[in-house]
Amino acid sequence: MSLSQTQQSYPLSDSDLFVLKQWMFQTAIDYVLLGVHATLSIAVLYLSVASGASLSNAKIATAFLAIMMLFVSLSVIIINTEFLILQIAMSGFNPPHLAKTISLETKLDITPNILIRLNYAIGDIIVVWRAWVLFPQSPAVKTGLSICLIGSFVGAFVDAGLIAKRLMIDLSDLGKATDALILVVPLCFTNFIATVLIGYKAWCHRQDIQNNLELTHRPLSKVQKILKLLVESSILYLAIWIGYGVAQLSDSGIELASQIYATIMPEITAVYPLFVILVVARENAKPDNVNNMSLSQSIRFASAQTARSEAEG
């Protein structure tokens, strides 16, 4: 009896169709976000090497982190695609060897979780660095930011370790909802501290400009615009992380929101700092004018006015 006579193909069940649609949606979103990520990474690398000036340590570090995050994101998507292909093969008439397949499935499920959390931690390096450079003479601030960053790394990799431990025992074990706090709380706290510090520096700078120039209604300077952008983007990013935590902790009533967050968060974490770098670079490239002088020009002008007043007195 031929193989075609002994095996018959039937229409997919509703549950199979739902899973297939879910896979297609997740894969499409992943590759769209990867395309955005790759485009922004190329733009950041171009800015780093084509600015016409010598490469500083900050530019080299930014380029390195951009390449690393893109490589991690690409690796995650490739592994996830391979995992889905393996799932499809398991649903066929002649599935692969079960023991080998389960072992491979476990590895393909654990590895992306570790890589995704690596990207989360790298993203916090950039978040901390933005606040770090605003306080070059403050050891207390740098120490606090360093502790926050260490906490982010510890939270990310402890969470990855717990996930790996669960999946090695049972691939279907999703863990408790509160397990998400191990990852979310340190990352949110680090972003909150960095946002507060950047906001404080923006407020201090505006107060200094107003006091030195005695102008309360002057247009925002370039530095003020950049600081304002950093504060607003940090608040938005923090809100996204809080939303992710709430979605993970919520009941199945908004399970779809949790799944969407889980799909897009890795790429949002990677794309967000690149987008901010490009917007800041664009703002910084705008020429100063009389009504929109830079911070250094403002300080020099105020100092000259003070010295002239003292000489006349």
Automatic annotation (TrEMBL):
Keywords: Membrane, Transmembrane, Transmembrane helix
Domain of life: Eukaryota
Transmembrane regions: 28-49, 61-86, 114-135, 147-168, 180-200, 226-247, 259-281
Name of the featured protein: Family A G protein-coupled receptor-like protein
Higher taxonomy: Eukaryota, Fungi, Dikarya, Basidiomycota, Agaricomycotina
